[in-house]
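Example for tutorial group B:
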């Protein structure tokens, strides 16, 4: 892997981390905002890994929309509907943390960060990976236990398929979902009071 790609991934990770710090740094403390964000990015990676692993068994392979819709060639289902189902499923994968906190009364994660991480995951996955011709994500569909993303976690956990000539990372396609996610959360909390 080339040094330019690693540098781009580090810069991207720093940008993705900046928005959560701005969102809750004063409220929860800056170090806490960093820890929460790191865990939520890890959660996005592990949730994706888990979604593939549980789908090895019937009936979960049908119930899990990530595999039954997103990774399958489903006929008679419009692409926009498939993406809406995928977005809802991805959102719930994060929102379940808030539900668990509400049930137990134990707050570990700020709802603002849960929503930011959910919107970011949905934004990158749908707008960058699903609607563009992204080779990194195509490899994931060809070899479903590789390239789960975020790519930095694929490198850390050795799930990145090497020896593939990947496209240069489009910073704009990765940053726009982060900006939209940030402003969505700001908007939700500004007008929900």
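The residue assignment follows.
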């Amino acid at each position: 892997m080339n040094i330019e790609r690693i540098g781009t991934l580090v810069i991207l990770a720093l940008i993705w981390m900046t928005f959560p710090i701005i969102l809750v740094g004063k409220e929860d403390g800056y170090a806490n905002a960093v820890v929460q964000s790191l865990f939520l990015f890890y959660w996005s990676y592990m949730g994706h890994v888990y979604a593939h692993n549980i789908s090895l068994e019937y009936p979960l392979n049908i119930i899990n929309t990530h595999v039954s819709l997103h990774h399958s060639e489903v006929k008679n289902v419009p692409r926009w509907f498939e993406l809406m189902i995928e977005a809802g499923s991805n959102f719930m994968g994060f929102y379940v943390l808030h539900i668990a906190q509400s049930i137990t009364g134990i707050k570990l994660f700020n709802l603002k960060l849960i929503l930011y991480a959910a919107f970011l995951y949905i934004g990158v996955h749908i707008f960058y990976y699903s609607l563009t011709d992204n080779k990194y994500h195509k490899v994931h569909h060809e070899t479903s236990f590789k390239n789960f993303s975020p790519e930095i976690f694929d490198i850390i956990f050795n799930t990145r398929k090497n020896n593939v000539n990947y496209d240069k990372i489009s910073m704009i396609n990765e940053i726009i979902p982060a900006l939209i996610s940030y402003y969505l959360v700001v908007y939700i909390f500004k007008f929900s009071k």
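The chain has a mean pLDDT of 85. Compare this with the pattern of hydrophobic and polar residues in the output above.
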